[in-house]
Amino acid sequence: SSDLIRSLTLELTTSLLLCPDAGVRSAAATCAFNLALHQHAERSDWINRDPAAAPMLGSRLGETWESELASALLQAIANESESEETLHRLLAALTLHIHLSQFWAESVGPMLQVLDAQDLLAAKRDSGLVSNSAKKQDLAGLLDDLVRLVSCNTD
C-alpha cells in the first residue's frame, strides 16, 4: 500500500541522514531534498485554496512526515562536520521542507522551537565547516534564512 511505502521511505531517509558514512549521508540529503521538493510542489495550491477544499490539499505526505523529516534534517545539520556539499543539501532541504508548511503553527514550528533550532542553526553558522568553506556565503545565507524561518511566530 502507499502508506507502507511512505512509512518505509520516511524511516529509511531519516535513519540514513544520521548514518556515520559521509557518502550515505550525502545520498540521504539528496533524497530528503527531493522529498521536500515533491511536498512543496502543491503548497502554492494549498495557500490559494478554496476554503471548502479538502484539508490535505497542500500536503502529499501529512503532518507526521513533515514533523519527522524536519526533526531528522535539523539533527543531520547539527551533526554534519565533514562535507560542505552535504550540509548545503541538508540546509536547502530543510528550508524547502518548512517553507509554506501547512503544519507550521500546529506542529512543525513548535517542535523546532523545542529542539532549539534557532540556536543550533546559529551555532552551525559559526562552525569551522561553514567558516572555512569555499561556499561560506551560500551556507551562511541558507543558515540565516533558516534562522529567520524558524524564528517566525507560530501563533
CA distance, first residue to last residue: 36 Å
Task: State the major sheet.
Answer: none
Regions with pLDDT < 50 over 5+ consecutive residues?
A: none
Helical stretch count?
9
Textual characterization of the structure:
This protein has nine helices and no strands. The chain is an all-alpha fold and 155 residues long. The model has no long low-confidence stretch (mean pLDDT 86).
Question: What's this, in brief?
Answer:
By secondary structure, this protein is mainly alpha-helical. It has helices spanning 2-17, 22-40, 43-47, 63-79, 84-98, 104-114, 117-125, 128-131, 136-150.
Key terms for this structure?
mainly alpha
Topology:
Blueprint: H1 2-17, H2 22-40, H3 43-47, H4 63-79, H5 84-98, H6 104-114, H7 117-125, H8 128-131, H9 136-150
Helix pairs in contact: 1-2, 1-4, 2-5, 4-5, 4-6, 5-9, 7-9
